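Record type: ASSEMBLY
Status: queued
Input:
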Amino acid sequence: QQQVKQSPQSLIVQKGGIPIINCAYENTAFDYFPWYQQFPGKGPALLIAIRPDVSEKKEGRFTISFNKSAKQFSLHIMDSQPGDSATYFCAAIYQGAQKLVFGQGTRLTINP
Amino acid sequence: NAGVTQTPKFRVLKTGQSMTLLCAQDMNHEYMYWYRQDPGMGLRLIHYSVGEGTTAKGEVPDGYNVSRLKKQNFLLGLESAAPSQTSVYFCASSYWPKSTYEQYFGPGTRLTVT
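Status: finished
Output:
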Protein backbone atom coordinates (compact mmCIF):
# COMPACT_ATOMS: atom_id res chain seq x y z
CA GLN A 1 0.00 0.00 0.00
CA GLN A 2 3.03 2.21 0.35
CA GLN A 3 4.03 1.75 -3.28
CA VAL A 4 3.93 4.22 -6.10
CA LYS A 5 3.93 2.52 -9.50
CA GLN A 6 5.45 4.49 -12.37
CA SER A 7 5.33 3.84 -16.10
CA PRO A 8 6.84 3.62 -18.61
CA GLN A 9 10.34 2.66 -17.52
CA SER A 10 11.79 4.41 -20.58
CA LEU A 11 10.40 6.74 -23.21
CA ILE A 12 11.77 8.20 -26.44
CA VAL A 13 10.06 11.21 -28.01
CA GLN A 14 10.91 13.50 -30.88
CA LYS A 15 11.61 17.15 -30.16
CA GLY A 16 8.36 19.08 -29.84
CA GLY A 17 6.37 16.02 -28.81
CA ILE A 18 4.52 15.65 -25.50
CA PRO A 19 5.94 12.86 -23.34
CA ILE A 20 3.57 11.60 -20.65
CA ILE A 21 4.72 9.74 -17.54
CA ASN A 22 2.14 8.05 -15.37
CA CYS A 23 2.04 7.13 -11.68
CA ALA A 24 -0.49 5.26 -9.57
CA TYR A 25 -0.79 4.86 -5.82
CA GLU A 26 -2.89 2.93 -3.34
CA ASN A 27 -2.53 4.77 -0.05
CA THR A 28 -5.30 7.38 0.14
CA ALA A 29 -3.48 9.05 3.02
CA PHE A 30 -0.93 10.48 0.59
CA ASP A 31 -1.54 14.21 0.33
CA TYR A 32 1.42 15.54 -1.61
CA PHE A 33 2.84 14.36 -4.90
CA PRO A 34 6.18 15.78 -6.05
CA TRP A 35 8.09 15.03 -9.23
CA TYR A 36 11.87 14.94 -9.34
CA GLN A 37 14.12 15.40 -12.35
CA GLN A 38 17.56 13.84 -12.54
CA PHE A 39 20.15 14.66 -15.22
CA PRO A 40 22.91 12.14 -15.95
CA GLY A 41 25.64 12.26 -13.32
CA LYS A 42 23.61 14.49 -10.98
CA GLY A 43 21.35 14.05 -8.00
CA PRO A 44 17.57 14.35 -8.40
CA ALA A 45 16.02 17.79 -7.93
CA LEU A 46 12.44 18.81 -7.23
CA LEU A 47 10.66 19.80 -10.44
CA ILE A 48 7.00 20.35 -9.59
CA ALA A 49 4.50 19.13 -6.98
CA ILE A 50 0.74 18.90 -6.56
CA ARG A 51 -1.82 18.37 -3.80
CA PRO A 52 -4.88 16.12 -4.42
CA ASP A 53 -7.36 18.99 -4.10
CA VAL A 54 -6.08 20.35 -7.43
CA SER A 55 -6.66 18.54 -10.74
CA GLU A 56 -3.86 20.22 -12.67
CA LYS A 57 -0.77 22.30 -12.03
CA LYS A 58 1.45 23.97 -14.62
CA GLU A 59 4.95 25.32 -14.27
CA GLY A 60 6.35 26.47 -17.58
CA ARG A 61 6.25 23.55 -20.00
CA PHE A 62 5.64 21.00 -17.23
CA THR A 63 2.12 20.01 -16.19
CA ILE A 64 0.91 17.57 -13.55
CA SER A 65 -2.57 16.12 -14.02
CA PHE A 66 -4.17 14.53 -10.97
CA ASN A 67 -7.10 12.10 -10.87
CA LYS A 68 -8.01 11.54 -7.23
CA SER A 69 -10.77 9.00 -7.85
CA ALA A 70 -8.48 6.84 -9.97
CA LYS A 71 -5.52 7.41 -7.64
CA GLN A 72 -3.36 8.36 -10.58
CA PHE A 73 -1.25 11.34 -11.57
CA SER A 74 0.86 12.12 -14.58
CA LEU A 75 3.54 14.48 -15.84
CA HIS A 76 3.27 16.07 -19.27
CA ILE A 77 6.07 18.03 -20.93
CA MET A 78 4.86 20.43 -23.60
CA ASP A 79 7.08 21.28 -26.58
CA SER A 80 9.75 18.88 -25.32
CA GLN A 81 13.40 19.73 -25.95
CA PRO A 82 16.58 17.60 -26.00
CA GLY A 83 17.56 19.38 -22.77
CA ASP A 84 14.58 17.71 -21.06
CA SER A 85 16.27 14.33 -21.49
CA ALA A 86 16.59 13.03 -17.94
CA THR A 87 15.21 10.49 -15.51
CA TYR A 88 11.94 11.52 -13.89
CA PHE A 89 10.67 10.19 -10.57
CA CYS A 90 7.21 10.62 -9.16
CA ALA A 91 6.80 10.43 -5.39
CA ALA A 92 4.18 10.63 -2.67
CA ILE A 93 4.07 11.55 0.99
CA TYR A 94 1.45 12.14 3.67
CA GLN A 95 1.43 14.76 6.39
CA GLY A 96 3.62 13.76 9.29
CA ALA A 97 5.49 11.14 7.30
CA GLN A 98 9.23 11.13 7.58
CA LYS A 99 10.07 9.90 4.09
CA LEU A 100 8.95 10.06 0.50
CA VAL A 101 7.77 7.00 -1.42
CA PHE A 102 9.36 7.11 -4.88
CA GLY A 103 8.23 5.54 -8.13
CA GLN A 104 10.72 3.44 -10.08
CA GLY A 105 11.72 6.25 -12.45
CA THR A 106 11.32 6.92 -16.18
CA ARG A 107 14.30 7.50 -18.41
CA LEU A 108 13.19 10.08 -20.97
CA THR A 109 15.09 10.77 -24.19
CA ILE A 110 14.11 13.65 -26.46
CA ASN A 111 15.58 13.23 -29.92
CA PRO A 112 16.49 16.37 -31.91
CA ASN B 1 25.59 27.80 0.28
CA ALA B 2 27.07 24.51 -0.83
CA GLY B 3 23.80 22.63 -0.24
CA VAL B 4 24.39 18.89 0.12
CA THR B 5 27.90 17.61 -0.51
CA GLN B 6 29.13 14.03 -0.64
CA THR B 7 32.61 12.61 -0.21
CA PRO B 8 34.11 10.81 -2.08
CA LYS B 9 32.69 11.11 -5.61
CA PHE B 10 34.08 7.76 -6.79
CA ARG B 11 35.49 4.75 -5.01
CA VAL B 12 36.56 1.23 -5.92
CA LEU B 13 36.67 -1.34 -3.14
CA LYS B 14 37.64 -4.97 -3.00
CA THR B 15 35.18 -7.45 -1.51
CA GLY B 16 35.45 -7.43 2.27
CA GLN B 17 36.93 -3.94 2.57
CA SER B 18 35.19 -1.26 4.59
CA MET B 19 34.56 2.39 3.90
CA THR B 20 32.56 5.39 5.06
CA LEU B 21 30.67 7.80 2.85
CA LEU B 22 30.26 11.31 4.21
CA CYS B 23 27.30 13.56 3.60
CA ALA B 24 27.26 17.18 4.75
CA GLN B 25 24.54 19.83 4.46
CA ASP B 26 24.67 23.51 5.32
CA MET B 27 20.93 24.23 5.24
CA ASN B 28 20.25 23.38 8.89
CA HIS B 29 17.90 20.58 7.81
CA GLU B 30 16.60 18.17 10.41
CA TYR B 31 16.04 15.18 8.16
CA MET B 32 18.75 13.37 6.21
CA TYR B 33 18.58 10.28 4.01
CA TRP B 34 20.80 7.77 2.24
CA TYR B 35 19.59 6.18 -1.00
CA ARG B 36 21.09 3.81 -3.49
CA GLN B 37 20.25 3.96 -7.17
CA ASP B 38 20.58 0.94 -9.44
CA PRO B 39 19.44 0.61 -13.07
CA GLY B 40 15.72 -0.17 -13.25
CA MET B 41 15.36 -0.08 -9.45
CA GLY B 42 14.81 3.61 -8.87
CA LEU B 43 15.83 5.20 -5.59
CA ARG B 44 15.84 2.84 -2.63
CA LEU B 45 16.08 4.22 0.89
CA ILE B 46 18.86 2.66 2.96
CA HIS B 47 18.70 4.56 6.26
CA TYR B 48 17.49 7.94 7.37
CA SER B 49 17.68 10.30 10.32
CA VAL B 50 15.12 12.71 11.71
CA GLY B 51 17.56 14.60 13.88
CA GLU B 52 20.97 14.62 15.49
CA GLY B 53 21.65 11.36 17.30
CA THR B 54 18.77 9.49 15.65
CA THR B 55 18.76 6.92 12.84
CA ALA B 56 16.17 4.59 11.34
CA LYS B 57 16.12 1.79 8.79
CA GLY B 58 14.80 2.25 5.29
CA GLU B 59 13.86 -0.42 2.78
CA VAL B 60 17.33 -1.87 2.13
CA PRO B 61 19.39 -1.44 5.33
CA ASP B 62 21.27 -4.75 5.39
CA GLY B 63 25.04 -4.42 5.09
CA TYR B 64 25.04 -0.71 5.97
CA ASN B 65 25.33 1.31 9.15
CA VAL B 66 24.84 5.02 9.71
CA SER B 67 25.59 7.68 12.26
CA ARG B 68 24.38 11.24 12.80
CA LEU B 69 26.61 12.67 15.50
CA LYS B 70 26.27 16.24 14.22
CA LYS B 71 23.17 17.77 12.68
CA GLN B 72 24.96 18.72 9.49
CA ASN B 73 26.61 15.33 8.84
CA PHE B 74 25.25 11.89 8.03
CA LEU B 75 27.71 9.03 7.58
CA LEU B 76 27.05 5.78 5.73
CA GLY B 77 29.32 2.86 6.51
CA LEU B 78 29.95 -0.40 4.73
CA GLU B 79 31.66 -2.81 7.14
CA SER B 80 32.42 -5.60 4.66
CA ALA B 81 31.72 -4.57 1.09
CA ALA B 82 30.08 -7.01 -1.32
CA PRO B 83 29.72 -6.80 -5.13
CA SER B 84 25.95 -6.39 -4.60
CA GLN B 85 26.72 -3.01 -3.03
CA THR B 86 28.06 -1.67 -6.30
CA SER B 87 25.76 1.28 -6.88
CA VAL B 88 25.43 5.04 -6.94
CA TYR B 89 24.73 6.41 -3.47
CA PHE B 90 22.84 9.63 -2.91
CA CYS B 91 22.44 11.60 0.26
CA ALA B 92 19.51 13.98 0.70
CA SER B 93 18.21 16.35 3.32
CA SER B 94 14.92 18.06 3.99
CA TYR B 95 13.46 20.67 6.29
CA TRP B 96 11.03 19.49 8.94
CA PRO B 97 8.15 19.75 9.33
CA LYS B 98 6.72 21.85 6.55
CA SER B 99 8.75 20.78 3.55
CA THR B 100 9.61 17.16 4.11
CA TYR B 101 8.48 16.46 0.53
CA GLU B 102 11.25 18.66 -0.85
CA GLN B 103 14.43 16.73 -0.52
CA TYR B 104 17.73 18.26 -1.58
CA PHE B 105 20.08 15.69 -3.06
CA GLY B 106 23.84 15.57 -3.19
CA PRO B 107 25.77 14.80 -6.40
CA GLY B 108 26.21 11.13 -5.58
CA THR B 109 29.03 8.69 -4.92
CA ARG B 110 29.71 5.97 -7.48
CA LEU B 111 30.94 2.87 -5.66
CA THR B 112 32.28 -0.22 -7.37
CA VAL B 113 33.01 -3.37 -5.37
CA THR B 114 35.15 -5.93 -7.16
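Annotation: Chain A has a mean pLDDT of 94.
Annotation: The first strand of chain A starts at residue 4 and ends at 7.
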